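User: My instructor asked us to take a sequence, write out its structure as tokens, and then describe one feature of it. I'm not sure where to start. Here is the sequence I was given:
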Amino acid sequence: MFSTETRLDHTVPISVIEPFHVINKALLDLLRDLAPVDWTRPTIHKDRNVKDLTAHLLHGSIRRVSSLRDSYRSPMPSFSGIEELVAFIQQDNREFMMGMRRVSPQVLIELIEIYDKVLISLFEGMDANADGLGVAWAGETVSRNWFDIAREYTEKWHHQQQLRDATERPPLYAPLLLTPLLETFARGLPFAYRKFEAHDGVFVSISTTDPVTLGWTLKRERGTWSLWSGINPAAQTSIIVPAHIIWRIWTKSLLSDEARQHVQVVGDMNAVAPLIQFVAIMA
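Assistant: Let's start with the prediction itself. The structure tokens for your sequence are:
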């Protein structure tokens, strides 16, 4: 069912606090269950094993706690574009992970338990509708706090899922956990389609199946795209992707050529490219 009353913009927040608590506990349970050999297993990231990726999760929490709780911000260079910002972030991540290679897994677990809890408490105390950090992959330089918090949830979810893939543990596919992830990523679709030209009045519907069924519709109006909840039955193009595939596409865990094999399209085949080239992480 499609409704013109459900435009998904900054006035329609996504709540992730409850699922955040769930995945934080799941992460601790996962890490405490790892055998010594598991910590050295490779992940989808060529330069990160399980321990490195775990350190990266810790890095995200203590960096945000330092900023939100302590108002501490180290000097940063100016950036001429998104590419320079991404390069800076990746270098910062590598330096932290390298430093933590001399730290035991047990210490990592203890620090994660402390600072993930502090971070959630800080998020709970924030005004969800106040201006916060911009979600760059959605084209925003300033975002509402709820969107920034939801973006942080997607970081924690997808990296933990990569750890689970690497160690052959069950996925985080419960609807409570997967739905807010995909709903958050989907908010970046108008930005992803910004260069895709179409006449005003054109609709592109996107839906997921297995293990959660969700749907959104992009509407072309006044030369721009907007996002609406639900599937428009009159859409000129309909795209269907399994939910367990689309999160991998949007986090660069699946290359575009391979992703196309999992996409069903009725309508304009060219409308698929922005969807499978969209990256909802800073990488």
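For the description part of your assignment, you could build on this observation: The domain at 17-178 is CATH 1.20.120.450 (Four Helix Bundle (Hemerythrin (Met), subunit A)). Try explaining in your own words what that tells you about the chain.
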